[in-house]
Every structure is written in structure tokens, then in C-alpha cells.
């Protein structure tokens, strides 16, 4: 496993003795997860998904993606939550690999956004991927209705069969019914994998393959992480170390976890992480509040609160070891800004020192912190990162005593909204 976890700045908050005392509970969480005897076991299909996935399936998706790409100027990906954020996060992370522009719709109900999006797509050859596991979610359903009408004005029903792809539950749901009636191409989302754990299923892989992302390397990375994160070995398994540290800090009243990055291209990975952790842990009156910051930008705003505000938080830094393609700070003969000290160095050198300085300052200010370092902006690293976080949140959920795989709370607003809309 290439991802590293540095826990040095937990000193004084979490000790080796604390980890040892937690070992029986981790062992139980591990057994319950691996043996499928814990809460929500019916939704743990993601656990061995990378090793189960056939290479021939990936080859087919790569080929399919290429065909669609050749016939399109852009891809419209429609979906929300687990059917949206992992795809967007991957495209941001792997921007260098992207071969086709991808637009997103259905991730909210903003009419103005959709108006301008569609205006910009007039006369473009569009392919649409609609992703909804349940097939009944309001935001993507309405966006699809609107975009389908926009496409019907340009294409025949026959052409739409090539240009609309639906990814949904293979057994039920309105999207499945729509696709079957119109003859749209369908891909299944594994019924035993919940939305926020679905980025490595067809829900994520189909749009990513169309965009030209190396999905085979993504899955290879996830397979490597699966091998490492399946061991009941606290020394080697950093997913379990991370889960344990989060649990022990939470028990001390650190109720907020701030995921901080120094790379803007990780901002959507932070969003994906927020959904995964917030939806998995936040129930039964329990759960850490996951939030995220983008440094150094936010050091000039939220940095004050982290440094000196209420001491109810801890921080996890998410870094890239070798970001690649950098820019060098030039020498300046006058040196009026006094920055010749870094002349000739890559800007990332300054960024890394900013990170070291921030971690030390926040620790001294009473914010314990950990650092997760990912090797590079490549598909293999991201596949590892996705799986690492999925495994960590599952174990932490079991330590908390909640079902990490359901989300009953998200129904409350839907019920009220449908009442207001008069929808049955
Ligand atoms: O994690 C989840 O299950 C949710 O966040 C879903 O991903 C989200 O509500 C979208 O659901 P669906 O794919 O059924 O449209």
C-alpha cells in the first residue's frame, strides 16, 4: 500500500495504550465486517468488489467508453450523492487523463445552473449518462426529464438509444422502467452496494471510462488497498489505525473532523469523503461532523478558528507526495519581496513547508492531527484512497455501534418536499 498515515501529532491525545485497549473492539468490528455478521451486512458488497471484478468487464467498459467518446463532443452525467460526487472527484483528481469534457446535472435543483448549462450545449453532440441506484431520486429524475426533452429536439428516438445510458438497480425503479420502455442502454448498480460506496461500480466506472480515465489502474489500486486493509494487523493496516484514532478522539469530545488539503484538485475528494463519513456515521444521535478546508486559501479565513477557536476538533491532512508538473519560483535581482530564499525551487516545496508549519501550529494550538499522504495524482493512488476510506468508515461505524450502510435520515426532507409538491 503506497498511502501513508502519520499519527505523530496525536501525541498527548491518543497513546499506544489506548490503541491496545481498543484492540478487542476492532477485532470484533473486523470479524463482523468480514464474516458479514454486523449491522447492514446486506450492503457490504463493496468489501471484495475490487478482487471480484472481472478484467474482461473492465476491458468491455474501456472499449464501450472509446466508442461513445468518438461519437460525442461532451458527456452529461446526471446524478446526486453517491451517484455524482465520486465521479466528479475522480475527474478533478485525474484531470490530466480526461479526454472528453464532462458536465454534471441533477446534483441539485438549481434552475439557473441548468439553463446556462443547456445553453452552452446547443449544437454539441451530447451523450447522457443517468445514474440513480433507486431510480426514484427527485433531483436526477427532474434533470433527466428536462435534458431528455432538450435531446429529443435534436435527435431521433433511434439516435437517442445510442446517446442515453441508464445506470440503475437491475430489478426495480422508475429509471429502469423508462430505459426499458425507450430501449436505452442499461448498466446495473450492484444491489448490495450503497450509493456512497458505489464509485468503483458501474455507477462510477461507466462515465469515467467514457471520459477516458484509466479505470483499470483505478481498480488495480483498489485491489492493492483491499489486500492491505483486510488484515487484522494494527501495525500494517492504516485503515484500522485511522478508524481507531478517530474513535478515540471522538470519545474525548473531539466531535468535528476537519479534512484539510493543500491541493485544490482534492477539494472534490473531500466532498466525496464528507458524504461517505457523514452519511455512514451520523445516526442514532452519534457521529463525528466531517468538514473540509482547502489550504492555504482557508488559512486566511478559517485558519483563525482552527488555531484558537473551541477545542472540539481534530484535523486530518490529505497530501500528495509528488504532485508532478510544477512551476519554479524565479530568481529576482531586486528581491524586494525577499523571496529569493526559494528561488529555483518548485512552488510545491513552499506548499509542503506551509503544510508542515500548519500541522505544527495547529497541534500546538490544541488541535491533534494526522496526515494521510497519497503518492501521486494517478488512478492507482486514487483507487487505493477510495478503498482505504471505505474500509475505515465501515470499521469506525461498527466501533460506534451504528449501521454504517444505511441512511434513513435522508428520507425526512424528501417526504416533506413531496407533500409540498403534491407528489404521491
Ligand atoms: O449514499 C446514498 O445512498 C445516497 O447518498 C445516494 O447516493 C443518493 O441519495 C442518490 O441516490 P440514487 O442513486 O438512488 O439516486
Draw up the topology in text.
Elements: E1 4-6, H1 16-34, H2 49-52, H3 55-70, E2 74-78, H4 85-93, E3 102-105, H5 111-119, E4 126-132, H6 138-152, H7 157-163, E5 164-168, H8 174-182, E6 185-188, H9 202-211, H10 215-229, H11 238-251, E7 256-261, H12 267-281, E8 289-294, H13 303-308, E9 313-322, H14 347-364, E10 369-376, H15 379-400, H16 411-421
Parallel strand pairs: 2-3, 2-4, 4-5, 5-6, 7-8, 7-9, 9-10
Antiparallel strand pairs: 1-10
Helix pairs in contact: 1-11, 1-15, 3-9, 4-9, 4-12, 10-15, 11-15, 12-15
Quick structural summary:
By secondary structure, this protein is of the alpha/beta class. The protein contains 16 helices and 10 strands.
Write a structural description.
There is one protein chain. 47% of the residues lie in helices and 14% in strands. It is α/β, with parallel strands linked by helices. It folds into 2 domains: 4-37 and 232-400, Rossmann fold, CATH 3.40.50; 49-213, Glucose-6-phosphate isomerase like protein, domain 1 (Rossmann fold), CATH 3.40.50.10490. The protein has a 5-stranded mixed sheet with strand order 1-10-9-7-8, sandwiched between helices. A 5-stranded parallel sheet has the order 3-2-4-5-6, sandwiched between helices. Strand 5, helix 8 and strand 6 (185-188) form a beta-alpha-beta unit. Helix 1 (16-34) packs across helix 11 (238-251) and helix 3 (55-70) packs across helix 9 (202-211). The longest helix is centred in the last third of the chain and has 22 residues, at 379-400. The protein is globular. It starts with a strand and ends with a helix. The structure holds 5-phosphoarabinonic acid (PA5). 5-phosphoarabinonic acid binds next to loops.
